[in-house]
Amino acid sequence: MSVFSRTVGLAVLAATAMLLISSSYGASSRSGGGITLPGPTTSPKIGKILPLARRELSRNVVERRGNNIPRYRKGKGKIAPYSIANQWCAAFSTWIWNKSGFKAYLGTKILWRAHDGTMVGVQVRDLTNWAIKNGYFSYRAKPGYLVAYGTSHIGIVEKINRVSGQAVGSIEGNIGNRVARVTVPMERVTGYISPVRLTPIQLDKSAAYADMTVPPAVLRRIDKSQFGQP
Q: Which range of residues forms the domain containing residue 66?
């Protein structure tokens, strides 16, 4: 529990995303936690993320007696590789990214070693701060992105209902002590995180066609007419 402090400042962070991101694009590489990261042109296709998340969903991952240690076969099998013996929603999501070939999140400040040795993110606030400062934050959802919501939860976007439900469907770890599908109302979303870095124009367009509440200060500076349909 200690690493998962409540993320009450995410709405304020979202309001400053436009300013912070604009200053971060001059470098051709990014570094964090002592690791130099490749540019987004080397990243594999985002389409690899959901098949792996769905595979983990199908393996009936459940904690045994709510002990924060996820196991396969409804809690009777071996320990899941993304277990960190603590709240594990961020660990699950970033482990899926890592195994799909997306490792930019290794630039976050707080990384733990998961059960299989993979370095994973563990805190929603840390992931969101990193996304805002380094160009990975988005106001619009896409399958394979991460969705942060509530005070301290995060999952992987699977589908988006923009017509009737105004909600995002996600696959998440540590929801009800298991890996499960969740429907997140868009008004609860505090941010989406892309596995590849976005350009400033892409960020502006995500705000113009947002799947979450956008701060008024951001909307005032965007001319929606300059963009085509999303």
A: 10-18+44-221
